[in-house]
Structures are given as structure tokens and as C-alpha cells.
Amino acid sequence: MNESGxxxxxxxxxTRAPLMIDVVCLAMIGVVAVLVWSIYQVKVRRRxxxxxxxxxxxxxxxxxxxxxxxxxxxxxxxxxRAANAIGExxxxxxxxxxxxxxxxxxxxxxxxxxTIALAVTNFGEPPQPGPHSRIHVxxxxxxxxxxxxxxxxxxxxxxxxxxx
Length: 164
What we know:
Radius of gyration: 18 Å
Oligomer: single chain
Distance between the termini: 23 Å
Largest sheet: none
Shape: elongated
């Protein structure tokens, strides 16, 4: 227990959220912004090498953040900090928001590395549009949409569990 009476380290956004949930909440703003910027670089500016390394870097950063987040959640949980919100709302709303978020978060964890691995394997060096583009474009669009939905549903869950 810390000075606030909750397990683990408290967050910095002035809510009941633990530190790593605050970190992920803010990090997802950056992730979505970098994702949009990277897509712009490849679609409009045709900067394929920049897009490739941006996506690889983003994937690596996300991997580290997700691992740290999961370790923190396993060690300290989140439900005790959300108890006030759950008391005010039917618990079903908070858990439903979490489960919807987990659908997108888990599918993103699967789609994102597959998309990156296939691209690295099937595009040449330097990367250029080619036969793999037929697979990459719809897969990447799905992965990007999944990432945005992961962020949106995560923020909704954050609001219900730690702010409200």
C-alpha cells in the first residue's frame, strides 16, 4: 500500500488510476498520432523507408510498454482503485467497457506483429510497393483501425473505472 491507501504506485493524471495505466493512457495519444503521421508519410509522401522504421520502432516501444503494463497490473491490479467508480456505476458497465477494450487490445497484439513481420519479410530493401502490397495494405489498414479502436476503448474504460 502507498500513501493513498491503494496498492502500487499512484498515477500522475489526478485520477484513481495506477501509474502504468496513466502511462499507457497518455502513450496511446502519442501512438495514434505517430501512426497517423507514419501512414501519411507512406501514402502521401511515398517515404517507404521512414514508414518502415517508424512502424518497427513503434512496435518495439509498444511491446515494452505493454510488458511493463501487464507486470504492473499483475502485481497491483486495478479493481481496488476503480471500486469507487464501480460503486457509482453498475459493475457491468465498467466490466463491459473493459471486455470491449480487451477484444481490440488482444487482436492488436496479434495483428500488429504479423503485419510488421510480413512487411519486413516480403518487401525489399529499400522497401517499395510490390506484390506483397496486395496483402499488406488491407492488413495494415485493419491493424491501424484496431490500434485506434484499442486506444478509444481504453480511454472509455479509463473514464468509467478511474475518472467518473
